[in-house]
Amino acid sequence: MNEPVDVLIIGAGASGAAVAWSLADTKMHILCLDQGGWMNPAQYPSTGRDWEARFFGDYSPSPNIRERPEDYPINDDNSPIKVVNFNGVGGSTIMYTAHFPRLHPSDFKVKTLDGVADDWPIDYDTLAPFFAENDRMMGVSGLSGDPAFPPTEPPMPPQPLGRSGALLGKAMNKLGWHWWPSDTTVATTDYEGRARCINLGHCTPACAQGAKASTDITYWPVALRAGVELRTHCRVREITTNEHGFASGVVYYDKDGVEQFQGAEVVVIACNGVGTPRLLLNSASGRFPNGLANSSGLVGKNFMFHPYALIYGYVDEATDSNRAPPTCLWSKEFYETDRSRGFVRGYTFQFGRGVGPVMEAVMSEAKGTLPWGADHHAVFRRLNGHRLSLAAICEDLPEEHNRVTLDPHLKDSHGIPAPKVDYTIGENSAKMLKHGIARAKEVLAAAGATDICVNCPVLYGGWHLLGTARMGTDPARSVVNEWGRSHDVKNLFIVDGSVFVTSGGVNPTSTIQAIALYIADQMKRRLADLLD
Amino acid sequence: MLTEPALTPAQRDDLRSVAAMIIPASSEYEVPGADDPKIQADILATLGRDTRLVAEALDYLARLAGKPLAELDPARREAVAKEFRATGGGAAATLIRVVLQCYYRDDRVLRSLGLELRPPFPLGYPLEQGDWSLLDPVKTRPSMWRRVK
After folding, report:
1. Residues 190 to 249 of A: which have CB under 8 A from any B CB?
2. Does residue A238 belong to any structural domain of this protein?
3. What is the CATH number of the domain that holds A271?
4. Min CA distance, A355 vs chain B (Å)?
């Protein structure tokens, strides 16, 4: 029999780690359960000669391809964008590009400003101190003074421009368009026990150097020292409730596959925009027949990705290719609404330095750019090490028909029903993608690139899983309130990307973690009457 | 743990033939073809989770060819390869990717490309700062984020 705890956090990724760290100073008994284990950087792909090949295998971003024991399958057949994630201590911060923009102030007021979707119940100013705290904890490199964003103070200097950044910067200057060195969680100096970046280049599938921030090496060591307990290889099946309609704990399978019950006074869900609705729907009971916290009927609905368009071409000059962190610059030229473009809201350009030889060969062969036969060698030598790329990361608007439900047949290795994703790209997003592709071609042309190719939408580009348990003040139109507490179950909190009301047009990890810290702060401020 | 069944001798022969069609040897660049014994051995040794799809692709290729690929005349072989690439779907893409990923980690090939024969870690790579004065015109732009109050 497990001793009941004060706070039970489900998921040790971006948001779960932040909440655990923040709540640790309450001295409550805090336990986190994660379905995965601790990662071993000595086994990360960049340590071996097969570093690129593993991206197609055990370090694929798709759980359906990766099939590690801690992964669960996701039926995303009915989506033009496939879900990608990582499961383990650190969650998807193990496997992300470390691009770390924040949502803009306008992103929280889309209804007021542009008449679409809904305003958030919180705003940028509310989150600002938590953004700053998270930047310090994760260790952000960047440059103050971006005219496209309110003032920020990244604790480390930006990544070098390198050859690729300089080529792209020149091209943007020719067009007179905004660009700026990206905020990233790649350490450019030694930082809080982390070694500085040495340009392994293969950042996305985990950093062997430890220069890229993932919560297993940022928040977790501090949280554990402060007394938080983290139990690994524990997969939660359902959240249980008592006769008062409160969460009483969870049923989970431990590392040996044995079913366990863990009681808790407060339950915090941090399982991402797919895992969280899956858990809530799997927690249906006689008391909550449509799933837990689902009186609004919105659990799993309004699912948002960021549709990506990737545009790339080849220049005569050598680029940095795989020998540097993949993302180096962003542009917010087309971020804020300009109705003359034919759509509302906007997108970020995220610039890439290039790819390694295997990725170049595989992508170019698939695209038809790299031929079979005698010409293969000459063409490959013209392409390899000469790629410049940029991606338009488009704001997705919430639509109820885009949703996460439970698959009636598919189950994970513990027999727990798996999630099913139904998703289509909305009209506004489609127009935005088209606009982004056209502008990106202009950028590449200005850089002197030829052989321009487009991947749209990026098939395995479903990194950002948002909106499936949205926050709001109206219990009929939202799942959690403005400080992350379930409207229906007053000791149940959600702190991950599920609570996003709209998606913004940027990578969301920074905002997800700022929201998690904000919710934890609200919990601490309200401890005396947290469950009233 | 289940192990993937190995490819049959006929499948291996066709794999070698199609690999040579994808990347033939080149005396100009002093590189082997993808049918080179060392590269083929690497492919077979590391097929792992890709074995099923690669076998499926080779079975499809065999159906298109009607006999071992190596026994077809060059024109017919080209036609079969083109059909295979166009209609082979995910299985064909997997086979091609497996050939490419083993070819482009071979020492002789990397040497010819001027790349170092090592993984990225632990040495990493140098990265030049670049010309930061390029940012000067952007710094002079007026603030462009949308105010909400």
Report:
1. 197-202, 208-209
2. yes
3. 3.50.50.60
4. 13
